[in-house]
């Protein structure tokens, strides 16, 4: 594995559309559930163990070479909110474009052919990690970091939260993210043996509900 | 992965500024319109649509900051059929969506070409931003920067990438100059000094001439693109 390639893929400036999404943070701010650094940390911890874990297991499985179409269907089944499914596909399509330009290769091309309007973002992330010469651990860590990094920067913009406080939240969550990544990678190895049903299905009903409310709202800053 | 030769069309879709679509046909010319909030970008886009819609096949992508306001204005004004207008959401960072991370805008442009194409021209309107906001060359082939006389007649002197490097600088709302005390002569001299020969248009959409000068600049660009 190349540590430098991992930094390129995990960089928030990687041009794959993430800047327009808040990972549910805007809806949570609007609902009064994120009001500062402490509640941002709680929100992010919840994401790590639910959507973060599922995304990381999907990404790690794709990085191991599991069929992306089977993973995409499993991601659909684990994402009840139509708005979140649409956002995941949109981001997957944007990531696929950026990854194909960055690490050209036949697997990414095949994925674009199979999903011209986008596959779920964590699935694309795993295939992109493979193309970058990275492994399942790297893919899982990227997915988990994204699952909390997006909400943290969005909250800085939404609440005027001190950016040092937001970054400190991410640092405090790092050991927990490492443990979730290990669990995701273990699940991915089972998926490679047993199929996509071995993926975790930890859900956060409130994230799904708030995502639907957010999609119906006018005057939002972030797409999701 | 090692590759001796990178095919310009390695897969099922183009990636960025490639001038050909996957089927080998030439894609539409893309012109970006940027500039500060309230300078008249959307009004200029609407006027361009009215002036050009009978001679070329065109579509518009808007980039609003937190609403679909600009797209809805264009729909309300009925300057184009609704299927030719798409809004991109920019997550509180309009300049990011046109410069640093152009993926959402590229997808909007390509989806328009797929759904209502073939297109000759796509106008990409930025959300209102600051004087440093410019378009990536990966997204547009040419860019227009729109400022207005009411925003302060020192803007051309202040410069910034939009004012100094845009392919066309439009100084809008010249009809307001007497009321805002703006010195158009000074604005013209400052713009000339900043832009090293690049063109500048002074326009008022409320007067007869309207968007005519910008329209003829776009026509020249279209002719060069098709050549």
What does this molecule look like?
With 224 residues, chain A is an all-alpha fold. Chain A has helices at residues 3-10, 25-30, 37-64, 68-77, 82-102, 106-114, 121-131, 136-159, 163-194, 205-216. Chain A has one domain: Urease accessory protein UreF. Chain A is built from 10 helices and no strands. In chain A, α8 (136-159) runs antiparallel to α9 (163-194). The model of chain A has no long low-confidence stretch (mean pLDDT 96). Chain B has a single domain, classed as P-loop containing nucleotide triphosphate hydrolases (Rossmann fold), CATH 3.40.50.300. The interface between A and B is medium-sized, with 35 and 27 residues.
The biggest sheet of chain A amounts to:
none
Q: Tally the beta strands of chain B.
A: 7
**Secondary structure tally: strands of chain A:** 0
Number of domains of chain A: 1
Count the helices of chain A. How many?
Answer: 10
Q: Architecture of chain A, CATH level 2?
A: Orthogonal Bundle
Secondary structure category of chain B? alpha/beta
Largest sheet of chain B, in brief, is:
7 strands, parallel
CATH topology label of chain B: Rossmann fold
Predict the CATH topology of chain A. Urease accessory protein UreF
> How widely separated are the two ends of chain A?
32 Å
Give the termini distance of chain B in whole angstroms: 38 Å
Shape of chain B: globular
For the record, the CATH architecture of chain B stands as 3-Layer(aba) Sandwich
Mean residue pLDDT of chain B: 89
Low confidence ranges of chain A? none
CATH class of chain A: Mainly Alpha
Order of SSEs of chain A: HHHHHHHHHH
Please write the CATH class name of chain B.
Answer: Alpha Beta
Helix content of chain A: over 70%
Oligomeric state:
heterodimer
């Amino acid at each position: 594995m190349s540590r430098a390639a991992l930094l390129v893929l995990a960089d928030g400036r990687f041009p794959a559309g993430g800047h327009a999404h808040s990972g549910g943070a805007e809806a949570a701010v609007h609902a009064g559930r994120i009001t500062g650094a402490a509640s941002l940390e709680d929100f992010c911890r919840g994401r790590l163990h639910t959507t973060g874990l599922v995304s990381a297991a999907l990404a790690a499985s794709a990085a191991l070479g599991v069929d992306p179409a089977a993973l995409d269907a499993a991601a659909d089944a684990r994402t009840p909110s139509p708005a979140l499914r649409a956002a995941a596909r949109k981001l997957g399509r944007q990531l696929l474009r950026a990854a194909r330009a960055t690490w050209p290769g036949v697997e990414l091309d095949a994925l674009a052919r199979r999903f011209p309007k986008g596959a779920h973002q964590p699935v694309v992330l795993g295939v992109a990690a493979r193309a970058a010469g990275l492994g399942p651990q790297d893919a899982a860590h990227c997915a988990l970091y994204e699952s909390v990094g997006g909400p943290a920067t969005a909250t800085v913009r939404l609440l005027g939260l001190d950016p040092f406080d937001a970054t400190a939240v991410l640092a405090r969550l790092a050991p927990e993210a490492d443990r979730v990544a290990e669990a995701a990678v273990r699940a991915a190895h089972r998926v490679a043996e047993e199929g996509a049903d071995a993926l975790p299905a930890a859900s956060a009903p409130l994230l799904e509900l708030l995502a639907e409310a957010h999609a119906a709202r006018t005057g939002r800053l972030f797409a999701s | 992965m090692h590759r001796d030769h990178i095919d310009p069309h390695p897969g099922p879709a183009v990636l960025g500024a490639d001038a050909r679509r996957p089927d080998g046909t030439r894609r539409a010319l893309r012109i970006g319109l940027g500039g500060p909030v309230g300078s008249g970008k959307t009004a200029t886009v609407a006027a361009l649509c009215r002036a050009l819609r009978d001679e070329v096949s065109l579509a518009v992508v808007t980039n609003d900051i937190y609403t679909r306001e600009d797209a809805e204005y264009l729909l309300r004004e009925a300057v184009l059929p609704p299927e030719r207008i798409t809004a991109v959401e920019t997550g509180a960072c309009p300049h990011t969506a046109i410069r640093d991370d152009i993926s959402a805008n590229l997808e909007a442009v390509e989806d328009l070409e797929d759904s209502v194409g073939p297109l000759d021209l796509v106008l990409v309107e930025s959300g209102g931003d600051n004087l440093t906001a410019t378009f990536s060359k990966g997204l547009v082939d040419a860019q227009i920067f729109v400022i207005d006389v009411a925003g302060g007649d020192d803007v051309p002197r202040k410069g910034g990438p939009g004012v100094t490097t845009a392919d066309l600088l439009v100084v809008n709302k010249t009809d307001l100059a007497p009321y805002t005390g703006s010195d158009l002569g000074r604005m013209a001299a400052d713009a000339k000094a900043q832009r090293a020969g690049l063109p500048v248009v002074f326009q008022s959409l409320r007067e007869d001439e309207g968007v005519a000068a910008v329209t003829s600049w776009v026509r020249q660009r279209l002719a060069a693109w098709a050549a």
